Amino acid sequence: MNIIIKVNEKTNFKKRANKFLMINLFIALAIFIFIVFSSWEAALILASYTFITQYIRSLRFNKYFITYIEKNDEQLKIIYHKKGEEKEITGNILDFIVKKKRVFSRNRSTYLAVYYSGNLLLRQYETGDWKEKTFDDMIKKINT
Known about the structure:
This protein is an alpha+beta fold.
């Protein structure tokens, strides 16, 4: 029995990264403007820190994008993009572990962790058509 899951990548890595760059720049600017009247040094430090940490975080969240998964009786094939470069991995279904995980920081983030031969291969965060429900559906299809 073949199960195929396709997810369209509406925007590429560069566009997703630039979108988050602009959002992070806006947030850092808002922090700077809000604090600048009390201390411009503190405002600059806090705004810079916020921008850098959030931008690094957003690059990590947008690093991978799974576009295709195919499962047959014994094999699992995953096609994904890593920073815009297409990659493919195929292996025995027993060598893969797929889990939904949550990260709790200022806001809750859910991601799909794909392990191959016991090593973390990739993390697919909620972006584009990848939502928590999509993760649940995919895990259910792979594990049946």
